[in-house]
Amino acid sequence: MTDLSQAKDAEEILAFISARVRSLGFDFCAYGARDPLPVTRPSFTLHSNYPANWQKHYVAENYFARDPVVRYGVTYTSPLIWPVNARTDEAFWQDAKGHGLAHGWSQPIRDKQGRIAMWSFARGADPISTSEISASESRLIFLAHAGHSASSRLIPAHGHGIHVDHFTAREKEVLKWAADGKTAIEIASILSISERTITFHMQNIMEKLNSVNKTQAIVKAVLLGVIYEMS
After folding, report:
1. Is the pLDDT of residue 161 over 60?
2. Distance set, CA 231 to CA 166, 177, 186, 195, 227 (Å)
3. Which architecture does CATH list for 164-230?
4. pLDDT value, residue 159
5. Domain ranges of the chain
6. Where does the pLDDT of residue 102 fall: very low under 50, low under 70, confident under 90, or very high at 90 and above?
């Protein structure tokens, strides 16, 4: 396989990325993604070549709920060099180090379908230096985003099948003002169209988002990036 476009499954993507980051000084890599819907039961995707003993231990200790890298990834989009918060998360980092994951670099990703994802590259020795980051970070960022794009192609965002392109410009305008707390009458005044037309657009929006009311439609639109995309 010469490029990610030829990857047939997640294992091939992982192997491709792993080979590239190994040349950049990392022994392991991992990819995780969380779909935005359903809100109460979001689905997860996880693939890694982390040591098997660490993967079992991670699950047994329920580290996902308190992993500082995961915590960072759901909040920020800039790269992270770890370990971080060495004092408050000392037990976690000592455990990770004991399993060969002493130092790492992670890239959180947000895509247009509302998926939150992250690639992490790790090794057991040698902290990541400033000079190493200067020399390699642009390639690491590229590999993380390329890997995510390939994974998203093979594993579409779970179940919802909703895309930003499904909405007209007017529908996005109505959504934006509705999310800002405006009533149908107020939105009609802002956009210089009738209240009846606003109600028509909102009904179409609710149908496209498979929502039973305006509130649910707005929540889904935010999670899926429909409103964000137009800002």
Report:
1. no
2. 17, 12, 20, 23, 7
3. Orthogonal Bundle (1.10)
4. 45
5. 4-154, 164-230
6. very high
> What's the chain's length in residues?
231
pTM (predicted TM-score): 0.73
Task: Locate 71 and state its tokens.
Answer: 């915590």
E strands along 21-162, which residues? 28-34, 44-48, 80-82, 103-110, 116-123
DSSP output for 218-229: HHHHHHTTHHHH
Rounded to the nearest 10 degrees, how much is the dihedral formed by the CA atoms of 44, 50, 54, 57?
A: 10
SS3 percent helix, strand, coil of the chain, rounded to 5, is 50, 15, 35
Q: Where would I find the beta strands (DSSP E) of 14-151?
A: 28-34, 44-48, 80-82, 103-110, 116-123
User: What confidence category does residue 231 fall into, taking pLDDT thresholds of 50, 70 and 90?
Assistant: very low
pLDDT at 1 over 80: no
Four-point Cα dihedral 139, 141, 145, 150, nearest 10: 40
* Residue 212, token pair as written in the block: 């039973």
CATH superfamily, domain at 4-154? Transcription factor LuxR-like, autoinducer-binding domain (3.30.450.80)
The reply to whether 4-154 and 164-230 are identical in fold is: no
The answer to whether 145 and 206 have CB atoms below 8 angstroms apart is no
Task: Report pLDDT digits (tens) over 180-213.
Answer: 999 999 999 999 999 999 999 999 999 888 888 8
- Exposure of 73 by Cβ count < 10 A (0-12 exposed, 13-18 middle, 19+ buried)? buried
